[in-house]
Amino acid sequence: MLCNIKSGSYTISSVNEDSYGQTDGCVWVIDGATGLGGKWLPEEASDAQWYASAFSRYLSHALADRTRSLPRIFSDGVKQIWKEFAARTSVPPSCSAADLPCAVGAALRRKDGVLEYIAVGDCRILLRTRDGQTLELYDRRHEALDDESLRQM
Fold first, then answer.
1. What is the C-alpha to C-alpha distance for residues 66 and 148, in angstroms, rounded to an integer?
2. How many CA atoms lie within 13 A of 59 on its CB side?
3. 3-class secondary structure for the chain?
């Protein structure tokens, strides 16, 4: 059972671009990021907030499908959210991915008595076990990329 779920979101912006949720046996967090190219969705508080909220809504239904893997669910979600975004905007084909909103995220799901997780980007899951240990679950592959980006700044 997943219980005592706590979350926190801290921002210096006037708009919270994070989203999180839980359903039966599943929890997730999405950390939206604003693109460098300006605002594509003027009717929204921010493009990243829209993206994170849309992805969270998608996960609230998709994670219930225990036949699909978490990587497949996230991959399909990115495609679906981009279709929704494209339908609402007129992004030119020459636009760089850096100009568009994006997100990182993590999810934890109970499936057949086992906990499975996915951590995309720099998102981390802190999981406290019944015996009081805290496990930190994340994808360490991004650390080298982060280090390289910092060196180039």
1. 37
2. 29
3. CCCCCCCCCCCCCCCCCEEEEEECCEEEEEEEECCCCCCCCCCCCCHHHHHHHHHHHHHHHHCCCCCCCHHHHHHHHHHHHHHHHHHHCCCCCCCCHHHCCEEEEEEEEEECCEEEEEEECCCCEEEECCCCCEEEECCCCHHHHHHHHHHHC
| Neighbour order of strands in the sheet with 18-23 | 18-23, 26-33, 102-111, 114-120
Tokens for 9, please give them. 């979101």
pLDDT, tens digit, 9 for 90 and up, residues 92-137? 878 888 889 999 999 999 999 899 999 998 888 888 888 999 999 8
